[in-house]
Design goal:
This protein is an alpha+beta fold and 350 residues long. The chain folds into two domains: 101 residues, Phosphorylase Kinase, domain 1; 230 residues, Aminoglycoside phosphotransferase (APH), C-terminal lobe (Aminoglycoside 3'-phosphotransferase, Chain: A, domain 2, Alpha-Beta Complex), CATH 3.90.1200.10. Helices cover 43% and strands 15% of the residues. Strands 1-2-3-5-4 form a five-stranded antiparallel beta sheet. Strands 6-9 form a two-stranded antiparallel ribbon. Strand 7 and strand 8 form a beta hairpin. Helix 5 runs antiparallel to helix 9. The longest helix is centred in the middle third of the chain and has 22 residues. The N and C termini lie far apart (47 Å). The mean pLDDT is 95.
Length: 350
């Protein structure tokens, strides 16, 4: 358990003796990793920081925290808006050896009150928000990965045409390493998906992974920091749009994507987007199931670990079973319908 005095001592050791933590609070749900907002007194002025550490037994996402820190550190000098990374600590006593990442807090919120109000003005606002998000993704996806140093530590596909196959093989390895059960249906779904891997990526881009509503920091309806980079990877930029968590339904999806393409300077293959919408359902199984392992071992007894790592995984299994053997565009439609009622997979068939 982290207490204020121990946290204050920890910050003072890293930043200097005149730094004192005045208050802190944990953000929720924080199931994969624990995140704390920390405010300090620094000789009469206030500082604010985000302190992030692995949950007991490790994170849900099968990615080490230092990888996320290196992604943010590499992005900070670029035009991509991220919080300033301050330090990574691999095994501090404060967290009993769990790694820690600290970054400066950005003034803003991950919530946009009133965004879903009714009326023409609210609809126009949603489209503006979607376009701003598109511009930020375009900036990210257009980065030169060699010049910015990401090729030194991010696994890279051999070519743009290999993006989907590379990601497929990477996640098959993760699946075999972390699964708590054989999951024969998920294996069958993988063979089906392999038959439909796209080869039309416009380039190899740094992709964020989960992005969009609830993932970024906003101020005045504009993104001031792209946040949560634990699922970042090098691949097809279309995959980020499959993970954009409602951004394509905020306004007119065609308008949003065309704006993105104008800013990025390349096009998104709409059939690839359909594939990645289905592929992300498959990837959710090893991601969430990985978080079940500490629950089964007793290291992390939080019930949400059981809900996500077992219950939610069973829902995704049902959803995959409904799609195996179907054309990818039809499967993508099933996913879209399911997202309207995500706790009842059978509704997607209606």
């Amino acid at each position: 358990m982290i207490d204020q005095q121990s946290l204050s001592d920890y910050f003072a050791a890293h930043m200097g003796g005149d730094v004192r933590v005045t208050r802190f609070k944990r953000t929720f749900p924080g199931i994969s990793r624990e995140t704390f907002l920390v405010w300090t007194d620094e000789g009469g002025s206030e500082g604010s920081y985000v302190f992030r550490t692995d949950a007991l037994g490790g994170p849900i996402c099968p990615v080490p925290l230092d990888y996320e820190y290196r992604i943010i550190k590499g992005l900070y000098p670029t035009a991509v808006p991220v919080a300033e990374p301050l330090w990574f600590d691999p095994a501090p006593a404060l967290t009993e050896g769990r790694p820690v990442m600290v970054r400066r807090m950005v003034d803003g919120s991950n919530d946009l009150p009133g965004l879903y109000d009714e009326g023409a003005q609210a609809a126009a606002r949603r489209q503006r928000v979607a376009l701003d998000h598109a511009e930020k993704l375009a900036t990210l996806h257009a980065l030169d990965l060699e010049a910015t140093g990401f090729t030194a530590f991010v696994d890279m596909p051999a070519s743009a045409a290999d993006c989907a196959l590379f990601d497929f093989n990477r996640w098959q390895t993760i699946f075999r390493d972390v699964r708590t059960d054989p999951f024969p249906l998920v294996t069958e779904a993988a063979y089906w998906l392999k038959e439909h891997l796209p080869t039309t990526a416009p380039r190899i881009s740094l992709c964020k992974g989960n992005n969009g509503m609830g993932e970024e920091i906003w101020k005045d309806d504009r993104i001031v920091a792209l946040s949560d980079w634990e699922l970042a990877f090098a691949g097809d930029p279309a995959q980020d749009w499959a993970l954009s968590q409602g951004m394509l339904t905020l306004g007119d999806a065609d308008v949003t994507l065309r704006h993105y393409e104008d800013v990025a300077g390349f096009a998104i293959d709409r059939s690839s987007l359909d594939f990645y919408r289905v592929w992300e359902v498959w990837k959710a199984v090893p991601t969430l199931n990985n978080g079940l392992r500490p629950f089964l071992s007793g290291e992390n007894p939080r019930v949400p670990r059981l809900n996500l790592g077992f219950g939610r995984v069973k829902l995704f299994e049902q959803l995959l079973a409904m799609m195996i053997g179907k054309p990818i565009d039809e499967a993508a439609h099933i996913v879209a319908e399911w997202r309207k009622s995500p706790y009842r997979p059978e509704n997607a068939a209606n």
